[in-house]
Amino acid sequence: MTHVSPEPSPEGPATATAKPLPLTRTCPFDPPAELGRLRAHEPVSRLAYPDGSVGWLVTDHALARAVLTDQRFSARGELQRSPVPYGLAEPEPARPGAFIFMDPPEHTRYRKHLTGQFTVRRMRLLEARITEITEERLAAMRRGGQSADLVADFALPIPSLVICELLGVPYEDHGFFQQNSSAIFDLEQSAEEIQQAFGVLVGYLAELVARKRAQPTDDLLSNLVAAGDLNDEELIGVVLLLLVAGHETTANMLALGTFALLRHPDQLELLRKDPQLIDDAVEELLRYLSIMHVGLVRAALEDVEVGGRTIKAGEVVTVSVAAANRDPKKFPDPERLDITNPAGGHLAFGHGIHQCLGQQLARIEMRVGINGLLREFPGLRLAVPASDVPMRSDMSIYGVHRLPVTW
């Protein structure tokens, strides 16, 4: 594949009209209003990147899908630019194993080792264990009294335990991973702080890989080691990617999804009365909340026309998942949370060859977690005013830092 250097766009009219990515929210559950205005009037618009370059922002659902499936747009790390100020703003090649920042054939080589581990059938076999973990957390909350922080006591431990067991990482180290993975996603961290967090995690995983080679167990990492197709550096990269993603994404969807239901009592009551609605509720929450609020980034490998605009080779495109998931051309009444209206076709897990490997696992964790929470605590409610809930606006994965609840 031809290497295209993402040089900053030349000065001119387009540069003058480019604006930074809108991030300011007036409602904790809604994307910035400016994204909706752009989607309606300029679905492919000029975007000013923090490094001074000018690229594009796509806010339309159909055009977002088109970009994410078009192999003329690259996910390679060295071609990307962050649409928000971030410690790792300088483009750099993907670390070995970090396949989400690679194109085929490198991406294909890594992903094939994992696809069989995350099939719908395999994930359903895990459901009994996920249910057991969820029930343990619910019982611990009950023993703790009449209130809890839903993030620390429920939403974070469930996916953390599951991904640790799946990968073969000792759960007693979960606090260490949460602290360092959180630093990686923190938009206010410096490049040095982010690199330090990466280094600490890489060092730990190097030791873990060595242990799995010496004493393999029944887990995904041991299976990858036994296959013999990946070297240690690649194994570390793959596991680091899965572990960090497994700690951050579902945890934030569980907490933010519960917050949204508590603030939409009509929808909460529907789900309480009919737990069979949970599958539709999960899909609707994924669409409505879109925790990937910064978006997905791609770089054009050649000139490509998208929505009547010519994106030149080397220019960077940010796909706004949050805006695409509120597109009225795709979803009826998209600004309303409606768990009775299945939200098929949302982009919460991305689209195309980079679509999230763990999406079925996330769905099960959300389904079991939310239904269990509502069953065990029929009086569940916020313990503080909604305006006092601290939002993760400072993180690349959106959600809540804490969610104080009582029952």
Describe, in plain words, how this protein is organized in 3D.
- The protein is of the alpha+beta class and 407 residues long.
- It has a single domain, classed as Cytochrome p450 (Orthogonal Bundle).
- Helix content is 47%, strand content 9%.
- The chain has 16 helices and ten strands.
- The protein is globular, with a radius of gyration of 21 Å.
- Residues 1-14 have low confidence and may be disordered.
Compact summary:
The protein is α+β, with helices and mostly antiparallel strands.
User: CATH superfamily, please?
Assistant: Cytochrome P450
**What structural class results from the helix and strand content?**
alpha+beta
Write out the strand line-up for the largest beta sheet, numbering strands in chain order: 1-2-8-5-3
Number of strands: 10
Give the overall silhouette.
globular
- Outline the biggest β-sheet: 5 strands, mixed
Helical percentage: 40-55%
The sequence of SSEs as H and E is: HHEEHEHHHEHHHHHHHHEEEEHHEE
Q: How big a fraction of the residues is strand?
A: 5-15%
> What is the number of domains?
1
Oligomeric status of the shown chains?
single chain
Would you identify the regions where 5 or more consecutive residues have pLDDT less than 50? 1-14
